[in-house]
Amino acid sequence: MGLDDIIRITAAAAGTVAYVTLFGYLGFKVGQVTASLQRKGTWTKNHNQVAVITIDGPIGAVPLNNAGNDANYLKGCIDSLVDNKTVKGIVLEVNSGGGLVYAGFEMVDLLRHVRAGTYHKKLAPMHIVGRARGVAASAAYHLLCACDYIVANATSLVGSIGAFTAIPDASELMKNYGVKVHVFKTAKFKAAGMPFVGMNDEEKQIIDQQLNECVEYFLRDVALGRRMTVDALKETYANGLCFYAEKVVSSPEKPGLVDYIGNRMTAVWVLEQLGKFTCDNVFEVYPPIRGFNRLPFRMSLTERAQRYLIDPSTQQL
User: Fold this and answer.
1) The dihedral of CA 178, 184, 185, 188: what is its sign?
2) Quick one: which of 217, 219, 213 has its CA closest to 231?
3) Vertex 305: Cα angle to 169 and 290 (nearest 5)
4) Which residues make Cβ contacts (< 8 Å) with residue 49, sequence separation at least 6?
5) What is the pLDDT of residue 234?
6) Quick one: pLDDT at residue 267?
7) CA nearest to 145, candidates 76, 217, 214
């Protein structure tokens, strides 16, 4: 095989790759536009649609796949519904064991604005029905409490109402190896919680006080969403345990942690009753990927660590 043959084969291969890449990209863009037009009811008869937003994994972390579980992800999903008059309600599907405190509160705030009609001038007030899939615990359950009603499978685990923080103490380990850590600070409690120096009783008391203050905000939101008092919540479900959904369904005599036992279509039915419409299409919502550089494999190791690892000393729900 001569040099000319190698050049011809290489050129043919490069041309094929370019051809496939170009038409693959065009097909992808056409699919995006088509899906967008269908969701907006531009050329279909779908005028009463329900959008499904899925929250999957630890609240506040950014996963490698297209599912998401932080405020930016949720905002992107909601933004895609702006100016779409065919969407009559939202099903928020959650499968998560909890996560970071601040992330849960940010997401709850977004959901409340959507329900109140104050999220965007081109997004009408909208009912939201939460659905617990496998697990909706702690911060994940917090999200469901920002919805109008909660639907869950009979064996879904819900609850885990409470908060915790874990601060490792490696001071004795360092001492055994003859390592000393000198901490220079300008305020009395500035270095409280550093794993290499340990904590005194006063510092532990302060951390415990802050944690109790944090959980009071959480309990207030849950009690409001479940239509009960904070004291009643503390006496019944705020013990850190998860419950099978079928065991904690609300009744006229006693408010519970869920309102209906069922699946996604049950949640859609609840929306139909709330909004007085008949749903003719259900579709899942995902935020747009803005730029190649945001993909996980384009991140530096430092950025991956910052986005995917949870600081063990961070307060979590």
Assistant:
1) positive
2) 219
3) 150
4) 39, 41, 86, 87, 88, 279, 280, 281, 282, 283
5) 94
6) 97
7) 217
